[in-house]
Amino acid sequence: MPKDDSPTAKQQRAPLPESLKGQLNTFRGQLWRVKVAEAILAGCFGLLFSYLLVFGLDRLWATPPLVRLTILIGGTSFFVFFAPYWIHRWVFGHRREDQLARLIARKFPRLGDRLLGVVELQNQEESKESLSPALRNAAMRSVASQAKGRKFEKALPNARHRSWSLVVLATFAIAGAALVLVPKVGMNALKRWLLPLSDTPRYTFTKIDPFAAEIIVPRGEPFEIELTLSSDSDKRPPHGTARFGIQDPVKSPLRANRSYLFSFPGQAEDGTVSIQIGDARQAVRVIPTTRPTIGSVSANVTYPEYLELKNKRLDLRAGSMSVVVGSQISLEANTIENRALDLGTLTVRILPKLSARDVFDDLEADPTSPEEESVEESLPTEPETFALRIVGTAMSSPPIVIGDTPTELQLNWRDSYGLDDDGGHRVRVEPLEDQNPTAYLQGVERQLVMLATDTVSFEILTEDDFGVREIGYEWAGQFTKPTDETPSRGDRVLKKGAPDLRRVSERVEFSPFALEIQPQKLVVRAFVKDYFPGRGRIYSEPITVFILTKDEQAQLLKQQFDRIIGELEDAARREQNNFDENRRLEQEAPEELQGDSSQERLEQQEAKEAENVEKMEELSERMEQLLSDALRNGEVDSETMQKMAEAMQNMQELSQQDMPQVEKELRESQDDRSTPEQAKKDLQEAIEEQAKVLEKMRKTIESANEANENFEASTFINRLRRAASEENGIASTLVKAIEADRGVSTIAGLTIEELDPADQRIVGELSMQQRRTASDVRWIQEDLGHFYARTQKEEHKELMEAMQTSQIDSGLEETREKIAVNRTFEAIGRAKKWAAKLTEWADILDPPKDPSAGGGEGEGGNNQGLDDNDFEFMLKIMKMIQTEQDIRARTRALEQLRRTLHLQDAPKDDNLR
Amino acid sequence: MASVALVLLTPSWAQNETAPPKTEGPEIDLPKIEYPKPVTEEQKKAAVNHTKGSQSLAGEQDELSADVQELIEEQTSEKVISLLESVEEIMAEVTGSLDETDTGGGTIAAETEIIEKIFEAAEQRAQQNGGT
After folding, report:
1. For B112, how many CA atoms within 13 A lie in the half-sphere containing its CB?
2. Mean pLDDT of B15-42
3. pTM summary value
């Protein structure tokens, strides 16, 4: 029904009686007060309770921020949500009389209904025909009178404000007590309650210093966790407990340093360690991880500057390396875990030098040995430590200079997880002394003889542990008799090396001709230089080269020929003995020949024959060499050469054909398959062949002896000429000594005591030379006597008699005496006289050629003459070939000299011994 | 007796080094030798030694050439004479080279050829005597 808001209608409403209206207003006021109080008290309770809840929970555990936030929201929700709702319900929902009447009706239904009726009546409009104002007023009065005396406050819903007040008081008291009694705890809880998301740590009575919430430990290795009580910890529990996952708990007592140390066995899997110390509960996340291990190590070696070597990088698969003293080493290493490194160190430790006793256990210590002292002196010094340069997983050390003692380099590192290496990596560095280079001469005898025109080839081999700088050879001469000439001395650089060239070799064409070296005794040796400062040349073992004159070589060849003939005669005697024995065997019956003892004898005969063949081969080779040398000498006449060639050819035939044939027949005579007759026949054939061999040997010896006689005769000439040359040499040396020092005589007219020591030495040496010459001449006379006895050649007899008549022996001795007492002029005169005499005697045997004589010889035209012509031709050809070979060898030596010109400016070391 | 002479010509010692075989293929490029020039006193002295030595060898080669000429006069075989004449020519060439202090590979090769040719002449002579 629509309301009638017109003024007339309002005037027709009937208000409630004042008493009733007052009662309702009072009831409404009471209702409002109670319910508003309830709302406020509930809000206070919520806040206090939530605070106390956080306080309480924090005592048990570190209440997480979200939980604390939830609690705070829950606590404040009483104020935020419950209180407005409550007020809305009870204040705004019970402000009109009808609302109040209905609330009263809950407690007092009849009264409530009447009150509700009255409230509705007052709003009825009087203009309606059905409404009687009087009745309405009467009804109102009636209800007001019924309500009068009734206590509406009893109709109030359950009023809990008093109980709420008590609860709030109680919680407030508790909270206040917490704040007063344990203010740190209370304030901490208050802070954590008000600011749940802040990082305010939970307050505990037991306080632990900050520690890592997550640690990385070596996988599979025992580890420890140490927690330290804070200095302001309120409590100091005597024990703490920690537990890895669900493993057995580990206890630790409080230690003197206010810490608890928990030891755990090695772990393979990640886990959490829960720690409880008093009311403090902590958790540490443990992540087992493998230690950082080394993947590769290399060393950058910088060699000492003098070696001129490039830097080298060495992979250190083994834990040791060797470098030359003075090198610098920088180590580089990588770890394999692909984890960045945090830091690294290099520890350099000088190790004691190894003594011989350390190497060889069986050496006993010698207390007096200076080594003992040096070991004490070289006690290891304190190790030095250097920081490594770290880049990712790589680390590198600064360069370390290696001295002359063994050094240990130890790398240690730690990765970004804080894990250390497992013992580090050690490298032992052995210092290497830069050793002397070595030089060898190869392809040459230790002693050799040669003519000045010969060339000898040999190879110089050199080696150094780092690099050869240059190689070459030196020579130092020495005259075997006094002379006014200066012995030859010199060197030749052959090849330059390089810092990294460890072996250098070069072939030498050593030619006295090219080097202008006169006949003398030379000591030749190779030299090598390396790059070590101040070391100088290092020499090879020397070889001795006797550079001979042609007559000296002829003497030598004669001696060799004598030996060959002697050995040939021995071989012939052995062959004769073999022949006799074979003849004895031949006399046996055919059947007996195949008996054991005969077979054994035949076997021996075959072996003896083989032995003789071998000897003949050797003699043949020596004869060939002798012939070659005689040809080179050029002073052996063609007849002698021819005889020598015949002897050589026979020896070759004997060794290659005839004697092996005898050997073969002897072998066949032992054949088991042969019949006795056949065996006998084989032996007879061997004997026949051997007879021919013997005959050939005899002829060979004869031929060789003839050649030797000729050779000997020609050497008489040489020996006489050489003796003459010696006498001339003595005379000219004395002349030079007199003319020395700008024409002023230094020795003439002085007694031997007055002479300068150098002149005294020369005079002494000349005296010795004169003595040797006299001795040679005596031997010539004696040899002549023997030679004449064998050859019966008149010319030799005449010469021998001439020499005896001249009394040359005493004459040469007198000359020596004059030299010895420094009768210079007398000595010169006598020496010259005997030189002329000796030359004259040589001319008897070898008359000077008459240029007008022409080639009258050889005109006979017989067969022998034709053969001789052939031989002459061949001899000339051979000499030509020999000469051309010598020229070629010397050309080669000169070419070597020319190509090594630029190497000859190096400073020489004056240490040629 | 001729056989004795032939024995003497066994290559083992009459010819220690044989000349390289002649090839008819394309010419070989031989490395050019750069001879160092003498600068220091020591080097100059060595250079003088080289010059003196080379010219001395030229003299010896010339003497040997005269011996060859003398030998040619004694010969009756045309082939032998021809061979010895070519020897003489090469010897003249070598003498000239050595006189100009050329001791290089070319000169040494020519000397080797001389040895070869002399040996060939000897063989030729031996063959003729053996065959007649």
Report:
1. 15
2. 63
3. 0.59
